[in-house]
Amino acid sequence: MKDFLLPALNWLGLAYWVEIETTLPRCTYYFGPFLSPAEAEMAELGYLEDLKGEGAQGIQVRIKRCKPEKLTIFDETTEDSLFFKRMIPASS
Questions:
Q1: Over the chain, what is the mean pLDDT?
Q2: Most buried by CB count within 10 Å: which residue of 12, 22, 46, 76?
Q3: What is the DSSP letter of 88?
Q4: What 3-state DSSP class applies to 45?
């Protein structure tokens, strides 16, 4: 059932995603989709651990319903973001 429901909810923009914004690098990451906020919260810790391990700073997390067009959005106007972009493989 989940194999059918999750893609349908995601297509409609009703699936839950973990949105993580960082100030260093200036970036927004999307992880998901998930059926429920509780499912997204359980996965959130692993994403935070990975980003902290890569040296990301100024981390803010939101769980929200959305339909992201890109999974990783870099602000390429800052030198720090360009440095981190070379370190982190693109996820989309």
A1: 87
A2: 22
A3: S
A4: helix
